[in-house]
Records
---
Amino acid sequence: MNQLKKFKNLLVMAMADGGISEREIKFLSERRERWGLSDSQFAEAVQFALNNPGQLEIPQRRSERIEMLQDLIRTMAADGQLSEVEKRVFATAAAVMEISSDDVNRLIDDLLLKVERQREPQK
């Protein structure tokens, strides 16, 4: 899945609860920069998210699906709140991608562990 499609998915998730917080904007800006998206690509992604609420583009390969779910989790967690709408969009995406609940739980646990490690004081 190309970077633009991935970014569209992140925007759809960020907008799922009806708005985008400052922390979500920061997260999305970092992704946009990391993935080298142009202003026109950014505008295209915003239009997609506005015109297709809750609609995600599903990757073909399982490895890309897992990566997408990881990015969606990070997007959901960016503002420090998990809305019911975001949870539903995520759960639906995981089901459509045929990712088991055990695998989803593992992804969430892995992400939480990484976040916890980042917060630990450096020795």
Note: The radius of gyration is 14 Å.
---
Amino acid sequence: MSSIKSLGERTVLTTNVLTSKLESNYTVSDDKRLLYDTIIDENGSTAESSPNITFELAGPREHLYFDPTKTKSAIVTCGGLCPGLNNVIRSIVMQSWYNYGSRSILGIRYGFGGLNPTKGYYPIELTPDRVRDIHLEGGTILGSSRGGAEDLNIQVSTLQKLGISILYCIGGDGTLRGAHELYQIAEKKGYKLSVIGIPKTIDNDISYIQKSFGFETAFSTAVESIYAAHIEADGAPNGIGLVKLMGRHSGFIAASAALAMSSANYVLVPEVPFDLYGPKGFLKHLEDRLKNRGHAVICVAEGAGQELIEREKSGGAKSFDASGNVAFDDIGHFLRDKIKDYFKEKDVEINLKYIDPSYIIRSAPACSSDSIFCTMLGQYAVHAGMAGKTDCIIGQWNNVFTHIPIELAISSRKVIDPESPFWCNVLEATGQPASMLND
């Protein structure tokens, strides 16, 4: 069972507060749980490897912890840009204002750094007029940045001075770790702060959630690049289209885009190592592909093949970004150059086109499906915050919205299982071998 923390007894009757009067069966009890594993064998048993976890259901509670008319909330967006950020901001504001009657909502600018007064990024008031049309735009009206969580005691003190009772943290793994630490610091101070996370990462790599917002827009937008690579490759002798997509540790964007387009011949992801050279290596397979079909399309996730680059480097300390992530080498440029060198040595003329749509994808406005998802995430986040839930994120599992402890969500990273039906689907769609390792 995944236990959700609460700030205390809920004494405010929800039906006396909500402006949209809900049917009584719409409110959710904390006692209702969602099973992690919905597949059982003929004996009624789940798989031995299945975690013994159930999730608390998201949704409005019969009673609230906070009186919305006296409650001040804040929204912060952290990390890299992602489709749907503005949609979530808008949804939180609209839900708080119109359905709960809460009139004090602040937007924290440029991530956690916006809670450090020395930065000079003063918060902005968020109203329905201010956010009315922002869902039509990519990016975030609050701005975003990495880092800023070096000393979260400063941020907690700022939140206290601002009188914030609910903080909505929109971000990925690093943001959620910071949100968890904010809660811990506030708890030690005796400061009743509801910290609600909304998982944002186009890599879709947060555990115990079905998908993160922005992911569907990301791989849908990536499809256009794969299509362009296919046209370029097919239109030239020995044409090769090479597309690099985001995915530091998890290759869900590359794999999903390839499935959606079904014209990629190779999908290279961090979860499945490969060799460059040798009789079973990637370049030999690519050579055979060109001999047989005359063209090839390669889709590579940014975290794939990093060990190959490391072998050729002379060493040296690794560098990190402001969020503490290892700064990866560019696998796209590496593969492009290795492919060119390989065929040049064999005196084979190729026509290679390299496409990197990363920032086009990040800055795109949310697609229709993601827009719906973002709206609902924002609504459920406000339900959770007003009920006094804290140190949790809003997720979705088996198409049901859930509350998940932040600690559980950041306990491991969600990655592609190379033995899963999903990866088998990718192999069947591309025709690439299951392994491109020589041993």
Note: The first helix runs from residue 85 to 99.
---
Amino acid sequence: MTAIRTAGATSQKILLPGNSYTSASEFISNGSGAALIKVTNPNGSTDNLIFDVHKYLDSDNSGTHASCTSNNVAAFQTLGNWLRTNRRKAMLTETGGGPNDSTCLTNVCQELDALNSYSDVYLGWTGWAAGMFDTSYVLSETPTLNGNTYTDQPLVKQCIAGKFK
């Protein structure tokens, strides 16, 4: 961290990833939190040092299945409380669920509601598979093109775009 800050990046946010694919549900138990909480800026502050966490909603947290089996609310509450206690912040940089799966529509919305309820420690989230991903990709958030009209995926329209605060 010292080298980055000394090189001139004195006010930029820096994401700090953990172990086990930086899983939000394992961030505390796998030692990521304990290790990364020791990372500070050269002046000893923790300003703009953000823990980078991932959490998918499928059965194995891989983001490779269209079905959602969890809403991850408990994981984000546990980590959110730990972040509050330790006066640190995190960002969910990968999440997603099947764009047309009704369970995912419910679960992803609940997950993002949980993050919003901890907006003092979660800086936001990034949905995985947006942009130039092929719309046939299992977690695609890319709008579909029909003629000259783009249509948002139901998951994006209902859960992601509608949750920004």
Note: Residues 102-117 form the longest helix (16 residues).
---
Amino acid sequence: MGDASSTLEGKVALVTGGAVGIGASVARRLHEAGAAVAVVDVQAAPASDPEGILHVRADITDDAEIDSALQTTLDRFGGLDILVNNAGIIRFTPLQSLQRIEWDAVISTNLTAPAFCAKAALPHLVARGGGSIINISSIQAVLTGPEFAAYAASKTGLLGLTRSLALELGPLGIRVNAVLPGYVRTDLFMADADRLGDGDPQVFIERLESGIALGRIGEPDDIAGVVAFLASDQARYVTGAALAVDAGVTVRL
């Protein structure tokens, strides 16, 4: 993919769910590559973020808050070239215990919000002559397990959204792609590893790593590098793609 440094000079990026985990790494990587970056999250900005990353508190399941966050970004940076739909939530619930409020929360955050963030961003991307939308899906879109119904459905739906928007927005110069992270060391993953490892997350991690081709779980920056590539002109002929960044997990029989 080459060196992403300085390939995003003059670009403006908005990253949803960018206060922690993969989103925070994505925001920092885009900033390092030269982009002005706005992070939109319901959580407060981490103290460790470099200067030059704008943090906006907003709930992306609320259209008015999406519009307000976008306007804050435009007022600060003057335009928009890159949208990274990263924000997401997960619930582990057996079907017999699943409540509509849980289902709606997951679908609203993981699938509906990316669609309406893209809608809100569209005229501003067009005004800059095109751009890139990157949806953070999951390997749960293609491989899943029990008690993931809402999450798996939302991440699979995000692939359909990606493909449809790639066809619709391509003539406007906008590329739309999806990234499917595998097992990545985030707070969310570690909480699940603790649950599945009966209080010892390393037990679960070692079991996972024994079946991963590259022999390790991922780090957030492994995903961020791929996002930076897709956001850049190095990926100018890539649209409608669903790129698994999972160390080979989804190709194992």
Note: The mean pLDDT is 94.
